[in-house]
Design a protein that fits this description.
Blueprint (H helix, E strand, L loop, with lengths): L11 E2 L2 H4 L7 E12 L4 E6 L2 E6 L13 E11 L8 E11 L5 H16 L1
Parallel strand pairs: 1-2, 4-6
Antiparallel strand pairs: 2-3, 2-5, 3-4, 5-6
Length: 121
């Protein structure tokens, strides 16, 4: 629990492509390469295997990461519409962002599949 008596989840581990299936308010953990950074909007765009996720970084004190850094983001899913022409999409409101450049993504995906199949039984 934090100082205000609120508790936070560690986040359900998902690949970016599965985040769109998450419900609003769900806590998730995912990763992707930093492709865009918009400091005036406090938003970044991460990408993994041609799947894209918009991440709100407004809760973070600093953002020291470089383009193409592999980042892990933990936070809550919210609905988001950037303007009237865009359909509603999902955005991850990040509580934690960290560099995971050394991560073996193929092994991570393999372990995630094994973990998910174990949890389904």
């Amino acid at each position: 629990m934090n100082q205000e008596g609120l508790s936070f989840s560690h986040g359900q581990v998902l690949l970016i492509g599965d985040v769109s299936l998450s419900q609003e308010g769900q806590s998730v953990r995912t990763f992707g390469r930093l492709k865009e950074y918009h400091p005036t909007k406090n938003q970044i765009r991460i990408e993994y295997k041609n799947q894209v996720l918009l991440v709100d970084i407004g809760h973070l004190a600093t953002f020291p990461y470089k383009m193409n850094t592999l980042l892990q983001c933990i936070g809550e899913i919210e609905s988001y519409t950037s303007n009237l022409e865009d359909p509603e999409t999902k955005i991850l409101r990040a509580r934690v962002v960290r560099n995971v450049d050394g991560l073996d993504t193929a092994l991570y995906e393999k372990a995630l599949k094994i973990r998910n199949s174990f949890l389904e039984t």
